[in-house]
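Ticket #4471: structure export looks truncated?
Reporter: QA, pipeline team
Priority: medium

Steps to reproduce: submit the single chain below to the structure queue and open the exported record.
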Amino acid sequence: MSTTTPDCTKRRRRSTRSLRARPSGSDIEWTRAPEFSALPVAPPLLEIGNLSPAPLPVPASAMLVVPRMTHQSPLGRQEKSPVALPPEATSKKPYFGPNEMAQPNVLRAPGHAPSGFAIYVHEGRSDYAPNGGVNSPGLVLKAAGAKWRQKSAAEKEIYKAKARERSKDHAKIVAEWRASLHPDQIMEENRLRRLSNYLYGDKHQRQQRVIEIDRPRRPPSGFVIFTNQLREKHFHEHKHVVHYLKWASGEWWKLSEEEREHYRNITRQCVADYQKAIRQYQEQRMRYRVEAGLRGELMPYQLK
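Actual output as written to the record:
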């Protein structure tokens, strides 16, 4: 006597479609279950791409649209998802992500020193736009770039010399700015810059870390000490720093093991001094924080 195994897979698949089995004689007839259209189904509040239903109509006076981070829509476009907030949410601060991570920097560092081409664009406008008809920034830079490429090396050197003078003045301004900062301010600024680089590093220029003036510096390696000794005599022989480092690397491996060990011993001594100095620096900062906390003072990173 043969027995047939019921197709459970087929029956399970049909059961997920809200089907109901009704016996009819020896066979089983499958009929669709009635749909309960009386139950209201609320559409989602957010509209993702162009495939979801439209959001619920909300009066303009009862909602506050806050820009959010862009997302990848199903169609491959970068779109923004508006979110409806209650009327009591009157904050004008934009929403950047979880816990409002993207905060403005607490410090405003001096800008970069201008290059020779930037000085030419600023001072030599009569050279590349004599009639004054160029007003668009893009057209201005395009016209200035065409004239700049036609200039000789001697003519470019005039503007490059001005750029070097500006760079020296800018270095003094940056040094004064860094000397006026508190270590806790620098720590908070570096935290915000790391966060900004993590969130928007692929779209914007990455921000460098602010260097603490009083913090002890990590000592260089033996190879770096060796290359610094050769820099004054042989750096001008190479067009780029990469070419110089390749040449210095070859000279490093030409040294004997005893000569390389001499530079490594210098590094080991510097590392021991650095570890001692960094411990004293951290203890000094911690002591300052404890004393300020006992006095009831707020640290710069705690000020809002």
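Status: closed, not a bug. The export was complete when the record was re-opened. Leaving a note from the reviewer for reference: The two ends are 85 Å apart (CA to CA).
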